[in-house]
From TrEMBL:
The keyword Cytoplasm does not apply. It comes from Caenorhabditis briggsae. Mg(2+) binds at residue 46. Keywords: GTP-binding, Magnesium, Metal-binding, Nucleotide-binding, Transducer. Gene3D superfamilies: GI Alpha 1, domain 2-like, P-loop containing nucleotide triphosphate hydrolases. One of its GO terms (molecular function) is GTP binding. InterPro entries: Gprotein_alpha_su, GproteinA_insert, P-loop_NTPase. This is Gpa-11. GTP binds at residues 42-47. It comes from the Eukaryota.
Amino acid sequence: CGGTEFTPADLARKNSLINRQLERDKIEMKRTLKILLLGGPECGKSTIFKQMKIIHLNGFSDLDYVNFRYLIYSNIMQAMDQLLDAAEMFHFPPDDSPSIRRALNHYRSYKIRYSMSEVELNRELT
C-alpha cells in the first residue's frame, strides 16, 4: 500500500514527544479546578458560570475574600440550624454515638460563644 516506514529512532522521537505532551497535559489538568453547577432550567447556572469566568480572569482580591467569608460562614450556620431544627421538629433524634453528641454539643456551644463578626477565617478557609 505504499506506506511509510519509520526507523526505531523516528519512533523513539515520536514516543518522547507524545510522553512530554502527556506530562504537560497532566500538570495542566492538576491545576484545573472543575465545578459542577446543578439546578433546574432557568435557575441561573449560566449566569453564575459567566460571572465566575469574569471574576477569575483576574482572581479574587483580598477585599473579595473579606466580603464573602462572612456570607459563606452565615450560610453554613443557617443551613446547620435549619437541619437541626427540622430534625427536632420531625422528632428525628440524632444518632446516639458519642462522636455525634460531642459534635452537636460543640456546635451549640460554639454558636453561643461566638458571633459571626468574631469569627476569623484565614485565607485558605475563605
